[in-house]
Amino acid sequence: MVRDADPPVTERPAARRRMPFHKGAFPSKLRSLRLTSFLGLGLAVAFGTCFVTGLLDHLIQHPPGWFHWPARPIWLFRVTQGVHVATGLATIPLLGVKLWSVYPRLFRWPPARDLAHAVERLSVFVLIAAGLFQLVTGVLNIALWYRPMHFFFPSAHYWTAWLAIGAIVAHIGVQLPLIRAGLTHRPRRTVPPGTLTRRGLLAATAGAAGVITLATVGQTVAPLSSISLLAPRRPRTGPQQLPVNRTAGAAGVRALAVDPAYRLVLDGPGGTTRLSMADLQALPQHTVSLPIACVEGWSADAVWSGVRLRDLMALAGADTAGYEVFAESLETAGLYRSTTVDPAHARDPLTVVALRLRGEPLHLDHGYPARLIAPNRPGVLQTKWLARLTVRRAP
Ligand SMILES: Nc1nc2c(c(=O)[nH]1)N[C@H]1C(S)=C(S)[C@@H](COP(=O)(O)O)O[C@H]1N2
Ligand SMILES: [Mo]
């Protein structure tokens, strides 16, 4: 197997003869097992990190019984989701150059020597297709461009991730002897002066990944937002210096939200209470500094004031541990119209039903008259335009 290590793949006479394209297509001497192995290593680290952080996001949004996501530290989800988006983006140049480095092999003829080889090639095909699907849909999601996606993005992105990671593990397993050889054997071959070296190509690839990251990380790191040309959302844009994805108009809640007859319905073991804005304002007010950290990768700090959720739970007759809160929006149809606040988040002193943002009443697009804001939760669970809170025993 190690014989593959030295000459670049295009120089193997058999490979060249059998290529369906004219011989000498893309005849780069840069291609080598070593280059491919290093690119593969980088890709495995980036994709693996992206997979784990993505899985975490999925578990937080759809927690199975055994999973508990803590309310502290308040910045944890912001970091894991930022890492998810950054590593996903870094994968783009890595995958591009990796595919280029093995390009002649992808079109080798005949396509398979035997059954085992056919299975291996099929797994490579799955790997490429699933990897490209993840990158394209992920970027479309960051760009909030859902129109070309004729499927439900979160489910498609989640299940394809399993396909991709399965194919990657299989691929690494099959190629392990070659990868080991590629990473340990240093070929003596030299590249003519003045041409791109392998080290140069790896550095350029890493540089491209870095530039892409810098051009987007500003959607989370405010000081970098001015150079974040690729970030569609910046921390200080939007009403009250906070970005808005879904406006009150889009959610169809404008009329209900400004109706003087608005009441926040509070349901619990002690019965049902209907709280007017004046009632809510008369309860003890608390100010917390918490970020909105959207799963799309942007996040922004803000200062919120309102009533602690635990105070409302006490009012509803649930003054002890073991209760969760089901929060519903005035929105009737949206996918994100309701969430469950688990006991740890519900009792946290930083979890508030916010009435104010940066000292002003909430803007209609930020959830006026009242929204949920809790520490270390994905933005998608920070329900706006609250209509009803149901306090109930956690399962
Ligand atoms: N009722 C309701 N609340 C919602 C949403 C929504 O669509 N409906 N979007 C959520 C999402 S995805 C995020 S990131 C935060 C901030 O969203 P915004 O930018 O639309 O204010 O609010 C959340 N609260
Ligand atoms: Mo979001």
UniProtKB/TrEMBL annotation:
It comes from Asanoa ferruginea. The keyword Iron-sulfur does not apply. It comes from the Bacteria. CDD domains: SO_family_Moco (cd00321). Keywords: Membrane, Transmembrane, Transmembrane helix. InterPro entries: Mopterin_OxRdtase_euk, OxRdtase_Mopterin-bd_dom, OxRdtase_Mopterin-bd_sf. The lineage of its organism: Bacteria, Bacillati, Actinomycetota, Actinomycetes, Micromonosporales. Signal peptide: none annotated. The chain crosses the membrane at residues 38-61, 81-103, 124-146, 158-179, 200-222. The keyword Nucleotide-binding does not apply. This is Molybdopterin-dependent oxidoreductase-like protein. Residues 261-393 form the Oxidoreductase molybdopterin-binding domain. GO terms for molecular function: oxidoreductase activity.
